[in-house]
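Sequence only, no structure available. Ideas?
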Amino acid sequence: MDKILEENLKNLKELLEKYKKEKKVLLAYIFGSCAEGKTHKRSDIDIAIYLTGSEKEKLQILENLLMCSKKKLDILRLDDEDESPFIIQKALKGVPLIEPDEEILYKLWDRVLHETEHIRLKRNIHLDLNG
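Reply:
I predicted one. Tokens follow.
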């Protein structure tokens, strides 16, 4: 892992720990090439986070995270129910940056698994009906 990436992860982790203590961030994972150890010079950092608070507070946290990183951050909002359940599943298999809130993690996994199974069932029914 290159030095800039290591420094970015350290800074992100410190900031996320601060927000966890304030109960503003309940889950945070890195995923993708960074979590798999397959980074290169132009790699971004894929981060998945579960935020609480008002939308204004959430936007401030996102801005602060973006400002503390010298690498491009690609942020997946785990608290956004419009995010793809398949991408959320992948993100939750990544590397935790903070100690996860177990209750929120369980509820999120439960929702995501139900959504993905529902999508698969609909796809299979569609395929069966259309040949």
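The first helix runs from residue 3 to 21.
Hope that gets you unstuck.
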